[in-house]
Amino acid sequence: MLEDWQKERRDFLQSLSRISSLPKTNIVDTSTGVTRQISSLASSPHASSGSSGFEIVPLANKSFVEKKASAYAEVVKNLNCAREHGSQFKPATAFKGAYESLGVGVLGGKSVNMQKIWHLVQTLVGENTTMRQSISRKMSLVIGARHHLEWGHEKYIMDTIQNHPAQAALGGAVGNLQRVRAFLRIRLRDYGVLDFDAGDTHRQPPVDTTWQQIYFCLRTGYYEEARTVSLSSRASLQFAPMLMEWINSGGMVPVDIAAAASEECEKMLRMGDRVGRAAYDKKKLLLYAVVSGCRRQIDRLLRDHPTLFSTIEDFLWFKLSAARDYPAGTSTMVLNESLIPYSVEDLQAYLNKFEPSYYTKNGKDPLVYPYVLLLSVQMLPAILYLSREPAGEGFDIDAVHISIALSDHGILTEGAGAGPKLGVMDAYAEASSIIRQYGSAYLHHGNISMALEYYAQAAATVGGGEISWTGRGNIDQQRQRSLMLKQLLTELLLRDGGIYLLLGSRGAGEEGELARFFIDFKERQQYLLEVAHRCQEAGLDEKSIEIQKRVGAFSMALDTINKSLSEAICALSRGRLDGESQTAGLINSGNEILETFKYYPDFSFQERDLVLEQETVLRQLEAILSVHKMARLGHFLDALRELAKLPFLPLDPRVPDITVDALRNLSPRVQDCVPDLLKVALTCLDNVTDSDGSLRAMRAKISQFIANNMNLNWPRDLYEKVCFSIDGCFRCISLRAAEAACRR
After folding, report:
1. 204 vs 473, which has greater pLDDT?
2. Which of 113, 193, 266, 571 would suit a FRET pair with 456, their CA atoms being 20 to 30 Å apart?
3. Following CA atoms 616, 622, 625, 629 in sequence, which dihedral angle do they give, to the nearest 10 degrees?
């Protein structure tokens, strides 16, 4: 029994010796360690991440960018529609499909293209996989990044087998384990018979590939096959339960298993320290390090074996497989300092030591850096980098839609990256700003409907993504979304065509796009009234009137018209040339509102009374306007006759004097027009001959009226004009009033 065990051990060590002498491709300078490993990112067609990436077909940049923007825009519309109706939608998958629909060809020269990045985003958010509910959001992102790398390695294995069919000897077998073994036949073709191909093991000791099989099964995402191999080989029986726990827990193994794996790593590393005793498979050491998740063991492994990984994909897969996400301050997860777990933040800090140009080879491979950022769960830095990328291939457009996909899943705060941490709202605000800015470009080019779709996404982003559409976000997120949505919709309403788009051809938005965002009529009405008020403050009276009319606020619309009409009459009296056309339009609008109100089905008695009051004001202003028009045409006598007919001013010389304050019950809109009206009246009196004394009586009326309202501080030129109009026939009180007015 002892002799058999010694023979088996000797054969095993011999097989390891043969594996360790395999020819290595992409060997890096050992003096620079993993730093040089990163620089070899998939530049070789033999890289384990697969063959060279895709590139854009040689179309004119402008044409391709326009096609890409159009394809993405259609997805955004579909996404918004799905979220409004509560139906399922996978944004990353849809954006990826939109990009692929452009017919991008396969070219060499660059290792990462946007198609590859979209697959990574799709896998990160778990749209093409099923994630465990028990793990944290950050760990699900880590697992998603790992699955993407495994997908790439599977493509590489299949390409390798297809390029070497004779050596692969796959035959009719199509199972995952058979593919890995076919790949190993090619990889280990110079090292004799492999154990899974050996018929009689006593004739010639075969090469033991247990750890190679387990590693490449895991590296390719064949977890069940890795479990099968570990259970079927005597060399890996001790490792099998650890591996099963790592697979079942999504990498979050219990502390005792992590400690046992770390101890095994320690033994192998000590064995390697002895001269001539490097008789262990490095893949075995790597796998135990993955299960242990121990920062110290991982750092030592990479320090002692800087050439262990030939591509950054292999390096990142190892780091992501070993990463853990334990809550801060969880002391039970760390038995002692030697078992401090390796974290995603550790990986991010290491990768961020190097400048972007280091990854992109000074811009020759521009998408490598954002690809590395996304793989290391640094979502926001990747988006910001792409949005600033000056290349002419429209990467800023891709950045906008990547941010939409990630924001919809609500994972931006999990991927803020290493360094100073952004707050929850800061991260979402950054992404929202990018989306909003992109939407405003559509607005500036006159495509207001498409701007609306992106504005809706910008508001949803600050609200937390998909949850904002159903109101499941926290209070702060809901408030931020509501504020931004109202702000952006207001911006659209004030644009040409904005009212028609959002409110439709009639009504308060029931037939327009506004009903998508404000389902409740009262909420929609309140919002529109707020917008109308803001329009008034900004001097946009026409917009304000139209909005007020749409929501059934007829009295408010008439008040706005009366205010504008009062200002226009004052401007007309001061000689502004366009005042007459403006006043005609305002009166016409007022009459239309009154006509619409007659047939409006839903109004209160209070609203009816308010409308009647505003109608009275409108007619009073219209009468004042007619006096101004006659005076401007030189029809002074007719103007004075109309002035005497005004029932709201005591200027008719045939009517006895009334001591009651006539201005008290007048609207402020009418009161504002009285001083200019009196000046016009005095001008008319100066240009008409008094044949019967009635004009002299009207002068007295005007003088008395001004004297009775000295407290109103009317314009000085009115008082001066009264002084010049006084003659000896006036009564003493009129003279004193006029003189006092002049002194004022």
Report:
1. 473
2. 113
3. -150
